[in-house]
Input
Amino acid sequence: MVMTQNWKEALTFHVGKSEHPLIVVLGPTASGKTNFSLNIAHAVAETRGSPLQNDDGRSEILNADSRQLYRFMDIGTAKIHPEEMRGIPHHLLDVLDPKEEATAAWYKTEVTRVIGEILGRGNVPILVGGSMLYISALLDDLQFVANADPALRKKLEEQYDADRGAALFKRLQRIDPETASAFSVKNKSYVIRAMEILEGTGMKPSEAKQSGTCPWDLLIFGMQWQRETLVERINARTKEMFEDGWIEEVQSLLDRGYSIDDPGMKSHGYREIAEAISSGELNTNALQEIIAAKARQYAKRQMTWWKGDPRIQWLDVSALN
Output
């Protein structure tokens, strides 16, 4: 890992020399990405001598968390509140209905468009989030293979439904562990899409994605914590989400007519809470621990995905604070 603590110096140099700068803040869940991105935005304004309330020469933040794309899902996704944005424009929040499916290919198209608009205004885009494939789709200019035929998809969906994806996911883990490490067996759309690629092309999904050249000048910061500290932060944030009304938020989604089968409701924690509500067996303490454990597992997968990327400048966040 490339470690750095002089992030302001690196930022000033990068913004000053780059024609098409793109700043990226990534890291595991609960690592402090949102707050750090706001600090970067203020530092860019200082570098350019432009007050945040001006329209030119400042930063704009783009969401790179697939769950935060969805409306009505705020507490469980740790979505920033408007009053916390410090006057900095934020993009790609609340842009999808929970019944709509988000894909990395769709995201790449949307975020590329918004980045172009921000640069066109003379501002600096800051990409912030932890969805590994979504970020890679943009930074590595991934070219996704075409959709499989409907008959194959129907067959795979039936196989998935037979055992909740256990057999398909086990096969994917055996053939392409790199792809399988990016999501869990409960992510039905991802499991089926990976198997579509595998069976439709004969290629591993990790190899079928063709990468190109990123068109922007990248500066990537990664949020690094000691594992023990990150575990404490994840546990504390999960507890806080429940105290802030996460169960009530999921209940409101069910009351609106959404179900556990909708794409948005497959987001981490939402499905578990919805199932508990529907079953009538709502044990808050047990549910909180189950969701925190899954968040810890997800954080481990995130760091595994990024650990070999030499472009990332990792920050010891405990020292920053």
Observations:
- The mean pLDDT is 92.
- The chain has three domains: 2-142+213-225+306-320, 150-208, 228-299.
- The beta strands are 2-3, 21-26, 59-63, 90-91, 124-129, 217-224, 312-316.
